[in-house]
Specification:
single chain; alpha/beta; TIM Barrel; 11-stranded mixed beta sheet; 3-stranded antiparallel beta sheet; 16 strands; 26% strand
């Protein structure tokens, strides 16, 4: 199924090339900057009942826009980017259905299971999603943190997915190597996710055409949803019409 997104950078809705998001602002490659506020997109998704999309805060300066989006579609959007034990509850209270966590549950490149258990217990498993965004290295996929630049020691594989599923409700996985490039979905990663995860997964990265929704459904054995970003017409793309993505879901009863 199609899941929508709202990516925020410096308070604006943007589509960026994932691998270019570093500490050097000059390196950032941006595909699209919207003149519309985040809440406009949230209202659009609410109109079309597209639940389970994500708001991602890429760096500082995005909280006001994020909160406006959550208020516009209360209970319909997840939120990630800088989420930790101190602010997670506040974002749920602001209208998020789930908080999405990555970097905070890693320390020195390793998963901190105590932090994960703490957060899951405090919020409830059903309100927590884990971002396992990854990059390929030596034939495997490893979770990356800190602007998707630092490799952790955690492989995205069946054992990892089944273990972490005990503590969360969903996974969000950006294929960082293809994120924002519109050159095609990493179907090998999608297949691994569909085969290995016992809970819902949303995959993002590389989508360029409406047929990618069918390809992801097939490769992911019907257990992986797809986020389309830069290729979507509402984000300045030409590969996929938003209305066609909505129609895809409706045709399947979603």
């Amino acid at each position: 199924m199609f899941r929508p997104c709202i990516d925020l950078h410096e308070g604006k809705v943007k589509q960026i090339v994932g691998g270019s998001w570093t500490e050097d602002p000059a390196a950032l490659r941006t595909n699209f900057v919207s003149e519309r506020p985040a809440r406009w997109f949230a209202e659009l998704y609410r109109r079309d009942d597209l639940r389970g999309g994500h708001v991602i805060m890429l760096g500082p300066g995005n909280e006001t826009a994020a909160r406006e989006a959550l208020a516009a579609f209360a209970g319909g959007l997840q939120i990630g980017g800088g989420i930790n034990a101190d602010n997670a509850r506040a974002f749920l209270d602001a209208g998020a259905s789930h908080v999405i966590v990555t970097s905070w549950i890693f320390r020195e490149g390793q998963l901190d299971e105590a932090r994960l258990r703490q957060l899951s217990a405090a919020l409830g498993k059903k309100r927590l999603a884990l971002d396992l965004s990854c990059r390929r290295k030596e034939g495997d996929y490893f979770v990356v943190t800190d602007r998707w630049q630092k490799f952790t020691g955690l492989k995205v594989e069946e054992g990892t997915l089944r273990d972490l599923a005990r503590w969360c409700d969903e996974f969000l996985v950006h294929a960082v190597d293809v994120e924002g490039l519109c050159r095609g979905v990493d179907l090998e990663l999608v297949e691994r996710l569909g085969r290995g995860s016992p809970i819902p997964v949303t995959y993002a990265g590389g989508a360029k055409a409406l047929r990618d929704l069918e390809d992801v459904a097939r490769a992911g054995a019907g257990r992986v949803d797809l986020t389309i970003g830069s290729a979507l017409d509402i984000f300045g793309g030409s590969g996929v019409r938003y209305e066609d993505a909505v129609a895809f879901n409706r045709a399947r009863g979603k």
